[in-house]
Prior knowledge:
The protein has helices at about 5-25, 70-75, 95-100, 105-120, 130-135, 145, 155-165, 175-180, 180-190, 195-200, 205-215, 230-235, 250-255, 260-270, 285-290, 295-305, 320-325, 340-350, 355-365, 385-390, 395-400, 430-440, 440-445, 460-470, 475-480, 485-490; strands at about 245, 275, 315-320, 350-355, 375-380, 405-410, 450-455. It is mainly alpha-helical. A four-stranded parallel beta sheet has the order 2-1-3-4. It has a three-stranded parallel beta sheet with strand order 6-5-7, covered by helices on one side. α16 packs across α18 (about 340-350) and α19 packs across α21. The longest helix is centred in the first third of the chain and has 20 residues, at about 5-25. It is globular, with a radius of gyration of 25 Å.
Amino acid sequence: LRGEFIEVMYGSYLYNLMKSLKKTFDPQAVFNKGKIVDTPLMNTYLRYEVGIESPDYKTYFDFSAQGGWLRAIEQCNGSGDCRKGIVFGGTMCPSFRATGEEKDVTRGRANILRELLTRPRSKKVFNQKEILEALDLCLSCKACKSECPSNVDMSRYKAEFLQHHFDSVLFPPFRTVMVANMAAVERFGSFFPKLYNFFATNHFTSSLIKEIVGFTQKRELPRIMENSVEKYIKQSKMPGKGKKVYLFLDEFTKYNDGATGIAFVKLMIALGYDVVVPEHFESGRAALSKGMIKCAREFARKNVGLLKDIVSSDAPLVGIEPSAILSFRDEYPDLVGEDLKVEALALAKNTFLYDEFIMREVDAGRISSESFTDKSLNIKLHGHCHQKAIVTTEFSRKMLSLPVNYKVEVLSTGCCGMAGSFGYEKEHYDLSMRIGEQSLFPAVRSAGDDVVIAAPGFSCRQQIKDGTGKIALHPVEILLRALKSWNIYCKN
């Protein structure tokens, strides 16, 4: 836009030298045509034309703070920060780092979205294959939400577009429906865990299931855990010291990773807190990741309705799976609708990830290093993408440093590449592993046998296992084992 002023700034003599240099090395003007010399006037080639109204799309998410969905997409100013390489750290943008293609980066997706939503090439706006192809490799990691200088939230734009796309077709893809409703399938399977696990682990039946759903044969299907967190809580005697937390028992912990849930309960009880699992539904994270916003909205509205009157600063809602619990703070307020928005925002203020809550209690003097061992341990921590985007890994680092001789290194790793079901999907498996190989897998492999790998994300731990063969622990499991009372318990 400002190219027409270069001659004014540098003078005609230098400007003509620039033109001569350009003509010498690029006589056909094929490189960056019209960028520095012979640029068009700044009031030409504008994206928006006078008298042409932009479409006003009715959206599922509330984009009013940005002036609407198109204005939100317009937040991308083309700076290209999303094209940074691995050596610059951060997470944005994992798919671009693997493919090197502009269409697979946040800027490319934003450009395609705003161009084809503003000037669609088809009457079926939400069936345009160019947009669907550009969004296909978005892992919904949310790195752009925090690392982009304009805070472009491509994960949300992707979900919004996909729901409109599903509205325009007869049926969403079978795999999309299955993933979005996986918790319902596992809820049914939890009544017959041994039978469910037989089908999930038997070579013939699991291969058949993967083929039908469209999953790669190179992954193991998640199993239903037989150790119920809720059952453990019912059998446990609570301290009764007036300190209480409401545990949001997310769908991943409830059905696939009960051991981690029980570890959190044991940790809280040992530190003097009563743990209660209030009535609630699944988080809706799987549905959001697949663009099934209508389904996710139902869960969001039900959860806000059930929890708004019981959760408070004194009895907060705490979760241990980052992508699930952080939905309350990230998507819910803009998803539940105007009639519940105020309640959703109030609930979000008293909703914490496990490490945030523990460090809040440390700052308040209710938890201290005195409760933990003075033995030494080296820990390498891989943060969850949503944790890094919405909170920070600093709380987990501080929490794991409560044992005075624990040394915690936060790995400078990007997205693990699993991203929920993304790494399970047949056509995405290879890319998923390439993303893991960018920084995470090498960092884990280089860790000595005396180093503990910590990762709060259920998918992250699965990806680490599949990519390196090493077992990563949730930070609450590590902190539980660091309790002085835990060491006494183990000796007895």
